[in-house]
Design brief:
Layout lengths: L14 E10 L4 E10 L9 E9 L4 E10 L12 E6 L6 E8 L3 E9 L4 E5 L6 E4 L1
Parallel strand pairs: 1-9, 4-6
Antiparallel strand pairs: 1-2, 2-5, 3-4, 6-7, 7-8
């Protein structure tokens, strides 16, 4: 007799990307924080998202290659989402092309506009892989 296989719930997105403006209080300098998180909550370990950033300020292009997850180096058990944060210090108030790449294959194109007051997503990707929030 076979037991029924338990499958995880399907989610609309695999990752969330929260983009916000922050202030480094040590050097009193503003930066843009790109905070990646998985939608899935892991029960045994808090994993790390492996991401390779590629920033070209002159061309106004921000690219993140999402390569996958890696296990933590510490063997303590804990639960939570996997995460990755990138701080962009050298930026200007302008519109940027945001490219999100999954394992060097599929590209998801967004456009974000950084102004003095806020950050807005001006173009979204038709594919559902990352939910970009500001």
């Amino acid at each position: 007799m076979r037991t029924k296989q338990v499958r995880p719930e399907k989610t609309e997105y695999e990752f969330e990307l929260r983009i916000s403006r922050k202030l480094n209080e040590l050097n009193n300098k503003e930066y843009i924080l790109f905070d990646f998180r998985t939608v899935k909550i892991f029960e045994n370990f808090i994993y790390k998202i492996n991401i390779q950033p590629k920033i070209d300020i002159e061309k106004k292009e921000i690219e993140f290659n999402i390569e996958g997850l890696s296990a933590p180096l510490i063997s303590l058990s804990n639960n939570g989402v996997a995460g990755y944060q990138y701080k962009l210090y050298e930026y200007s108030n302008a519109e940027y092309t945001l490219k999100l790449i999954k394992q060097r294959k599929v590209k998801y194109l967004f456009a974000i506009k950084i102004s003095k007051k806020d950050i807005k997503v001006t173009k979204t990707s038709s594919r559902k892989f990352v939910n970009v929030l500001t």
